[in-house]
Design brief:
Layout (H helix, E strand, L loop, with lengths): L26 H24 L4 H11 L2 E7 L7 H7 L5 E5 L6 H8 L7 E6 L5 E4 L1 H9 L11 E2 L10 E4 L10 E2 L11 H5 L3 E9 L12 H11 L3 E9 L6 H8 L6 E2 L6 H11 L1
Parallel strand pairs: 1-9, 2-6, 2-8, 3-6, 7-10
Antiparallel strand pairs: 3-4, 4-5, 8-9
Helix pairs in contact: 1-2, 1-7, 2-4
This protein binds 2-acetamido-2-deoxy-beta-D-glucopyranose (2 copies).
Length: 286
């Protein structure tokens, strides 16, 4: 992988855009995988048809079929105090800042949100820090495609002031996905999104997401069909570790980025591994 050294972080040695290594699987297990995969593919088609009727249940079923296991904790709350954790999870009036590694991340976030699916607003910035609103499917698509530097294809440009307090807002300040190891530089700054201003309307939280499954993280673009097939047939599970931090209005963007690293479990890569660098990397990688 030496030809990609310019896309390696100088401080940590991490290549945030490089897909993770996939484990070797023997022939027999692969055969079992094919049989289970076909059954799951049928189940997934049924779940897909049911989505308009029971969206939340369908999301649950998709994550189940893709072997996703979610573990969530809240900073400063004991793991055993389940009710207190539950009451602090993202809800109506919350603005949540999160990192982003996989098209499954918005599905997992939908499930931990105590608000109706249609009241969740998904925001991804472009390279200038302008915010674009996406649908749930739009975020899934974004995680699977080449990042758009400027105008966002499937997003709608939006001002924060126009979002009602009844919503739960998710913002992905990196503007694109990376692999399981890093937090990319943020494209939003205090100039584009002011934390004290957010506090006038919302309770602000940060959620750090770590998922080490090389099949579900998508640092580089992948067609959705190939993504689904790989994950239905691969039989590796995704163990999602989520940690929520409750912020106060004095938190700065660099401090929030630090929190998302969850005490170094994810590494903060340098400014030169930007959105433009990722686009350049993808061209070379193909
Ligand atoms: C959970 O935390 C709350 C608030 O600190 C406390 O009142 C409650 O007793 C705790 N419950 C458990 C099961 O520890
Ligand atoms: C994900 O990152 C951690 C380091 O933070 C590493 O130990 C682990 O091997 C990575 N997972 C994969 C599948 O590479």
């Amino acid at each position: 992988m030496e030809k990609y050294t310019t896309y390696r972080d100088k401080g940590t040695g991490i290549s945030p855009f490089l897909p993770l290594n996939k484990p070797k699987v023997n022939v027999l297990l692969r055969l079992v995988g094919v049989v289970i995969g076909i059954v799951k593919l049928l189940a997934l088609s049924i779940v897909g048809l049911l989505y308009p009727v029971v969206p939340l249940l369908s999301i649950k079923a998709v994550l189940f079929l893709l072997n996703v296991d979610v573990d969530i904790s809240v900073d400063n709350i004991k793991k055993a105090n389940k009710s207190l954790i539950q009451s602090n999870l993202p809800q109506k009036g919350d603005f949540v800042i999160s990192n982003y590694q996989s098209p499954l991340d918005p599905l997992v976030l939908s499930l931990i949100t105590n608000n109706r699916l249609k009241h969740i607003v998904w925001l991804i910035p472009d390279i200038e820090g302008n915010l674009y609103e996406y649908s749930l499917a739009g975020v899934v698509g974004h995680a699977l495609s080449l990042p758009n530097l400027h105008a966002q294809k499937n997003g709608k440009k939006i001002q924060l002031s126009s979002i009602p307090e009844s919503k739960t807002v998710y913002l992905f300040p990196e503007g694109t996905t990376s692999n399981n190891k890093s937090i990319l530089p943020f494209v939003v700054t205090a100039d584009t999104v002011s934390i004290p201003k957010l506090f006038k309307k919302f309770k602000v939280k940060a959620v750090s997401i770590k998922n080490e499954n090389p099949y579900t993280t998508t640092p580089i673009p992948q067609p959705i069909a190939s993504y689904l097939l790989t994950n239905l047939f691969a039989r590796t599970s995704s163990y999602y570790r989520l940690k929520e931090f409750i912020l106060d209005k004095d938190h700065t963007w660099p401090e929030i980025r630090d929190l998302l690293s969850n005490s170094g479990r994810l590494k903060l890569v340098g400014k030169d591994l930007s959105l433009e660098k990722k686009v350049e990397f993808i061209k070379k990688f193909r």
